[in-house]
Specification:
The protein is mostly beta strands and 72 residues long. It is built from no helices and four strands. Bound molecules: zinc ion. Zinc ion binds next to loops.
Length: 72
Amino acid sequence: MSSPQPSPPQQGTSGKAKFNVYTIEECPACGQKTKRAFQVGDYITKDGANCSKCGNATKITLIYAEPVVKAK
Ligand SMILES: [Zn+2]
């Protein structure tokens, strides 16, 4: 396997697969990472919410999609 490359989030239904898109906000001060649902307008380097640990402003460092897995 090659190292993971950041790929643009894909939303909607192209084909059968469905994806949930997530945003990772990272605190530059303490390194705390927060995963939350992607919101329209999110982009990497955008300011995120304040860090839950130290209160510093976080930045979005990663946006990615996970396939929705339906329980059988
Ligand atoms: Zn912090």
